[in-house]
Amino acid sequence: MSSPTSSRRMGVTSCPRPRGTCTSPGPMPQTWATTPAWPPATWTSPPKASSASSLSSTWLLKTPGSSRPASRPGSRRRRTRWWDSRSPWSALPLGTQPEWLKVISDMEADIGSSLRWGCAAAGKPRPTVRWLRNGEPLASQTRIEVLAGDLQFSKLSLEDSGMYQCVAENKHGTIYASAELAVQALAPDFRLNPVRRLIPAARGGEVIIPCQPRAAPKAVVLWSKGTEILVNSSRVTVTPDGTLIIRNISRSDEGKYTCFAENFMGKANSTGILSVRDATKITLAPSSADINLGDNLTLQCHASHDPTMDLTFIWTLDDFPIDSDKPGGHYRRAGVKETVGDLTILNAQLRHGGKYTCVAQTVVDSASKEATVLVRGPPGPPGGVVVRNIGDTTVQLSWSRGFDNHSPIAKYTLQARTPPAGKWKQVRTNPANIEGNAETAQVLGLTPWMDYEFRVIASNILGTGEPSGPSSKIRTKEAAPSVAPSGLSGGGGAPGELIVNWTPMSREYQNGDGFGYLLSFRRQGSTSWQTARVLGADTQYFVYSNESVRPYTPFEVKIRSYNRRGDGPESLTALVYSAEEEPRVAPTKVWAKGVSSSEMNVTWEPVQQDMNGILLGYEIRYWKVGDKEAAADRVRTAGLDTSARVTDLHPNTKYHVTVRAYNRAGTGPASPSANATTMKPPPQRPPGNISWTFLSSRLSVKWDPVVPLRNESAVTGYKMLYQNDLHPTATLHFTSKNRIEIAVPEDNGHALVQIRATGPGGDGTPAQVHIARNGGTSMMVENSAVRPAPRSGAVLSHSLAMLILMGCLEL
């Protein structure tokens, strides 16, 4: 089916079969044509059915009893062929039915006027077009001319109204486009569009009063002021469409103005009153100004106007309205008086330069004045940065000048970075100072074989501008290394080895491809150097192995780098020792003694430094008597001390002790073993029945003596730790008795007291009490299991109970 339709009604002829007759909605029947030269066959839809509205038709011609492609008639093989008018080998083009390109639509026209309608259709063969009016064929007449797809009327009359159809047809089908023509005849009527009742106008200005009655045919228009008919003059014009224009208005132009409209159907009029008002004038115009970036500027604009009308101000920049109410914007309007319309520019930017126009307007007229604002600022970004003449350490850079933003460019600065993440850095140039009229300069001091991007920054007296865009990435040419490797050192390794270390050189110092290191070394005192070539920029050590190399032999070592462009400079000579061997001598006169239940002191005679390496210290090994030495614990001294204290031992235990010297190669032979026995552990019970008394600035404390058990060491004295709340530093006191008296500050604070027994086995378990100065004599009674009491004035805990034995005494 064809798809195009008119805006109102349209008929389309179509046929679902290639043979037969199809009747359309219109009066014209259409018939499909077939090709008689072909033998009888059946028509079958193709595998993929084509739309009936397609511009071409595709059918399957199938001979009876065959499903294979058919040859021409008379061929021995019976085949089926798809005939497609779009196929380049098709032998049966069927063409296309008409399809609308342009249709008619409903129309209203005035009586006596002219009208031209047109429609157009496409198809194969090309369709013919004819016209119908109210279902009857339409031919050319006196006032009507029919030209194929065009229908032209002159001097329309009422009998021309009706339904019209444009018909397009060819041998494949017919299509219709329908529309209605309504010819109107109306007397003038102002009801929908009268003359304005009150017409304000400004003195000295111009007023335009339209007269647009509804009328058919078009009405003849006359204007009058009062009883006087107006005619065209230097100040008064009546246009062909009936509009009245009065120029250079004065008070004498006030009055009633009437528009008279007339045609053969009748006449009508409409009246309005012209009221002359005072003209709007700019009394204080804005002044042009030059300002710098970031400055503030106020453009003044004052106006006078007719007091019976409202006055508004509108500002534009280069003819674009300015929004002065935008939050956070750069414009502010003065709102003090109706006749003041000043505009303030805040923190002026370069984009704020241009032509500013102040418009003062009422509903009848307006006045305007202009001013130019020039904003000076740092230069804009240069453009077109190009890199030429690329060398190993230099390039030639050129650029184009950017905007100077109304202040001459004073100088240029060039920057470079190594992509992708390098930071921009200023580079040395030739000339050193690039003047503002320059557009090229040489960049110096670049690194060979390095990727770079460049940019240019312009400056003037007002500051530094935005940088240019980065240039295209380039790589400088290769060169021999110019820096020697650093961090030359060494030592360690297996016997017979010399290990040399250095810091690998980073990419920026390699200067070219094929990078590596040349290492030279010789025994100290020798005259000939041995050289080793080490490949790879990331290599950081070299191992020279030779059984003839004696332990801890000094070698002189130096290094340089190279690439395919040549060798770099040599480093300074460093002294590196070959691998060390373990010490060969054991310490002597080892002596050990237990000094507490968990510690012992060990002393020995030092060994002499030998030629096998640098002595780093001593290693002490200790194990319980009865255990194997393999289970020994070890501690090392951090230097060459000849004594040490070993901690974390078991109480009342006998130990074997040996001492060995060690260096970086390992530990030497063990000394003869010595024996030491730790002390019995200190008493585990804390002091009990603690009592105290404050007497002026003295504190007296006493407790029950601690009696050690059979497996505990003797008690030789007691330690008391005293700490006052107001004095955070604690003081330690020692006494050989079970009582002590100390001086204390005269304050009302609390104090923490810890008391423990001490002896050869160390310090015992403490008893802890909190005492208050405003108390008299108090006492703490010990339970069977003792733990430190929490901090309070009177405490009851898991192990201690505070019992007040005496009443408070006034001090």
Extract low-pLDDT stretches: 1-92, 783-811
Secondary structure: helix percent: under 10%
Whole-Å distance between the termini?
Answer: 123 Å
Count of alpha and pi helical runs: 0
- The CATH architecture of the largest domain: Sandwich
Helices and strands: which structural class?
A: mainly beta
Question: Remind me, CATH topology of the largest domain?
Answer: Immunoglobulin-like
Shape designation: elongated
CATH class descriptor name of the largest domain: Mainly Beta
Which percent range describes the beta-strand content? over 45%
The CATH homologous superfamily of the largest domain is named Immunoglobulins
Largest sheet: 6 strands, antiparallel
Protein name: Axonal glycoprotein TAG-1
Subcellular location: Cell membrane
InterPro entries: FN3_dom (IPR003961), FN3_sf (IPR036116), Ig-like_dom (IPR007110), Ig-like_dom_sf (IPR036179), Ig-like_fold (IPR013783), Ig_I-set (IPR013098), Ig_sub (IPR003599), Ig_sub2 (IPR003598)
Organism: Phyllostomus discolor
